[in-house]
Amino acid sequence: MSVKALYPGTFDPPTNGHIDLIQRGAKLFEHLTVAVLINPIKNPLFTVEERVVMLAEATASLGNVSVATFDGLMVDFARQLGATAVLRGIRAISDYEHEFQMALMNRRLAPEIETVFLQPAGRYSFVSSRMLKEVFSFGGDVSGLVPPNVLKRLKGRMREK
Predict the structure, then answer these.
(1) Model's pTM, two decimal places?
(2) DSSP reduced 3-state for 160
(3) pLDDT tens figures, 19-66
(4) Which of 31, 51, 88, 129 is catalytic?
(5) Which residues contact 137 (CB under 8 A, 6 or more apart)?
Protein backbone atom coordinates (compact mmCIF):
# COMPACT_ATOMS: atom_id res chain seq x y z
CA MET A 1 0.00 0.00 0.00
CA SER A 2 1.36 3.42 -0.89
CA VAL A 3 0.78 6.21 1.59
CA LYS A 4 1.17 9.94 1.09
CA ALA A 5 1.82 11.91 4.26
CA LEU A 6 1.91 15.49 5.40
CA TYR A 7 4.31 16.92 7.97
CA PRO A 8 2.89 20.32 8.97
CA GLY A 9 4.52 22.97 11.11
CA THR A 10 5.81 26.51 11.31
CA PHE A 11 9.49 25.49 11.01
CA ASP A 12 10.76 28.88 12.22
CA PRO A 13 13.53 27.94 11.79
CA PRO A 14 13.89 24.33 10.67
CA THR A 15 15.97 22.36 13.16
CA ASN A 16 17.93 19.13 12.88
CA GLY A 17 15.06 17.56 14.85
CA HIS A 18 12.70 18.51 12.02
CA ILE A 19 15.16 17.18 9.43
CA ASP A 20 15.54 13.93 11.39
CA LEU A 21 11.76 13.40 11.31
CA ILE A 22 11.59 14.29 7.61
CA GLN A 23 14.35 11.80 6.75
CA ARG A 24 12.69 9.05 8.75
CA GLY A 25 9.25 9.92 7.39
CA ALA A 26 10.63 9.71 3.85
CA LYS A 27 11.47 6.07 4.57
CA LEU A 28 7.96 5.32 5.85
CA PHE A 29 5.83 6.99 3.20
CA GLU A 30 5.66 6.93 -0.59
CA HIS A 31 5.66 10.74 -0.55
CA LEU A 32 6.04 13.23 2.29
CA THR A 33 4.96 16.84 1.92
CA VAL A 34 6.53 19.17 4.45
CA ALA A 35 3.95 21.93 4.84
CA VAL A 36 4.79 25.33 6.27
CA LEU A 37 1.81 26.88 8.00
CA ILE A 38 1.02 30.46 7.04
CA ASN A 39 0.04 31.87 10.43
CA PRO A 40 -0.20 35.68 10.59
CA ILE A 41 -0.78 35.56 14.36
CA LYS A 42 2.75 34.39 15.11
CA ASN A 43 5.69 36.77 14.82
CA PRO A 44 8.18 34.64 12.88
CA LEU A 45 11.88 35.33 12.52
CA PHE A 46 11.82 34.12 8.91
CA THR A 47 9.23 34.67 6.20
CA VAL A 48 7.25 31.73 4.91
CA GLU A 49 9.21 31.91 1.67
CA GLU A 50 12.55 31.78 3.53
CA ARG A 51 11.41 28.76 5.53
CA VAL A 52 10.31 26.97 2.36
CA VAL A 53 13.73 27.61 0.78
CA MET A 54 15.59 26.43 3.90
CA LEU A 55 13.54 23.22 4.06
CA ALA A 56 13.90 22.58 0.33
CA GLU A 57 17.68 23.02 0.58
CA ALA A 58 17.93 20.76 3.63
CA THR A 59 15.84 17.99 2.05
CA ALA A 60 17.06 18.27 -1.56
CA SER A 61 18.63 14.78 -1.44
CA LEU A 62 15.29 13.15 -0.56
CA GLY A 63 13.52 12.35 -3.81
CA ASN A 64 10.12 11.68 -2.27
CA VAL A 65 9.89 14.87 -0.19
CA SER A 66 8.36 18.14 -1.31
CA VAL A 67 7.81 21.43 0.51
CA ALA A 68 4.59 23.45 0.32
CA THR A 69 2.68 26.10 2.24
CA PHE A 70 -0.86 26.11 3.56
CA ASP A 71 -3.26 28.11 5.65
CA GLY A 72 -6.53 27.12 7.20
CA LEU A 73 -7.27 23.63 8.42
CA MET A 74 -4.47 21.14 8.02
CA VAL A 75 -6.91 18.30 7.27
CA ASP A 76 -8.33 20.26 4.33
CA PHE A 77 -4.83 20.65 2.91
CA ALA A 78 -4.08 16.96 3.53
CA ARG A 79 -7.22 16.01 1.59
CA GLN A 80 -6.24 18.37 -1.23
CA LEU A 81 -2.89 16.54 -1.49
CA GLY A 82 -4.44 13.10 -1.23
CA ALA A 83 -2.52 12.46 2.00
CA THR A 84 -3.85 9.76 4.30
CA ALA A 85 -1.35 10.27 7.10
CA VAL A 86 -0.04 13.19 9.13
CA LEU A 87 3.43 12.98 10.63
CA ARG A 88 3.97 14.67 13.98
CA GLY A 89 6.95 14.75 16.29
CA ILE A 90 6.79 14.37 20.04
CA ARG A 91 9.75 15.46 22.15
CA ALA A 92 8.32 15.34 25.66
CA ILE A 93 5.19 14.73 27.70
CA SER A 94 4.19 18.37 27.24
CA ASP A 95 4.19 17.84 23.44
CA TYR A 96 2.15 14.67 23.81
CA GLU A 97 -0.79 16.35 25.52
CA HIS A 98 -1.10 19.04 22.85
CA GLU A 99 -0.45 16.66 19.94
CA PHE A 100 -2.92 14.08 21.30
CA GLN A 101 -5.70 16.68 21.49
CA MET A 102 -4.90 17.90 17.99
CA ALA A 103 -4.85 14.33 16.63
CA LEU A 104 -8.27 13.63 18.15
CA MET A 105 -9.73 16.80 16.66
CA ASN A 106 -8.22 15.97 13.28
CA ARG A 107 -9.68 12.46 13.50
CA ARG A 108 -13.08 13.96 14.17
CA LEU A 109 -12.74 16.32 11.18
CA ALA A 110 -11.14 13.76 8.86
CA PRO A 111 -11.48 10.16 10.08
CA GLU A 112 -9.78 8.88 6.92
CA ILE A 113 -6.49 10.57 7.88
CA GLU A 114 -4.28 8.88 10.47
CA THR A 115 -1.77 10.68 12.69
CA VAL A 116 1.63 9.02 13.04
CA PHE A 117 3.82 10.12 15.96
CA LEU A 118 7.61 9.84 15.85
CA GLN A 119 10.13 10.80 18.47
CA PRO A 120 13.14 12.72 17.20
CA ALA A 121 16.60 11.27 17.71
CA GLY A 122 17.61 11.61 21.37
CA ARG A 123 20.26 14.22 20.60
CA TYR A 124 17.49 16.54 19.32
CA SER A 125 14.74 15.70 21.82
CA PHE A 126 15.20 18.97 23.74
CA VAL A 127 15.40 21.27 20.70
CA SER A 128 12.52 23.54 19.78
CA SER A 129 12.59 26.38 17.27
CA ARG A 130 11.53 28.81 20.00
CA MET A 131 14.33 27.78 22.37
CA LEU A 132 16.86 27.74 19.57
CA LYS A 133 16.00 31.31 18.51
CA GLU A 134 16.25 32.51 22.09
CA VAL A 135 19.64 30.88 22.70
CA PHE A 136 20.97 32.16 19.38
CA SER A 137 19.72 35.71 20.06
CA PHE A 138 21.85 35.78 23.22
CA GLY A 139 24.94 34.61 21.36
CA GLY A 140 24.68 30.90 22.16
CA ASP A 141 26.16 28.30 19.84
CA VAL A 142 23.42 26.40 17.99
CA SER A 143 25.68 24.68 15.45
CA GLY A 144 24.79 21.02 15.25
CA LEU A 145 21.17 21.81 16.13
CA VAL A 146 20.22 23.27 12.73
CA PRO A 147 21.31 22.40 9.20
CA PRO A 148 24.28 24.45 7.92
CA ASN A 149 22.08 26.42 5.49
CA VAL A 150 19.81 27.45 8.38
CA LEU A 151 22.76 28.44 10.58
CA LYS A 152 24.04 30.68 7.79
CA ARG A 153 20.64 32.38 7.51
CA LEU A 154 20.37 32.76 11.30
CA LYS A 155 23.74 34.51 11.38
CA GLY A 156 22.68 36.75 8.50
CA ARG A 157 19.40 37.62 10.20
CA MET A 158 21.14 38.56 13.43
CA ARG A 159 23.57 40.82 11.55
CA GLU A 160 20.57 42.63 10.05
CA LYS A 161 19.20 43.49 13.50
Answers:
(1) 0.93
(2) helix
(3) 999 999 999 999 999 999 998 787 899 999 999 999 999 999 999 999
(4) 129
(5) 158
| Residue 133 known to be catalytic | no
Q: How many residues does the chain have?
A: 161
Query: Which amino acid, one-letter code, is at 153?
Result: R
Residue 130 catalytic? no
The answer to whether 13 touches 36, Cβ cutoff 8 Å, is no
Residue 129 annotated in active site: yes
Of the residues 18, 31, 51, 88, only one is catalytic, namely 18
Task: Mark whether 123 is an active-site residue.
Answer: no
Determine whether domain 4-160 maps to CATH 3.40.50.170. Answer: no
Q: For the CA atoms of 27, 154, 91, 75, what is the dihedral angle to 10 degrees?
A: -60
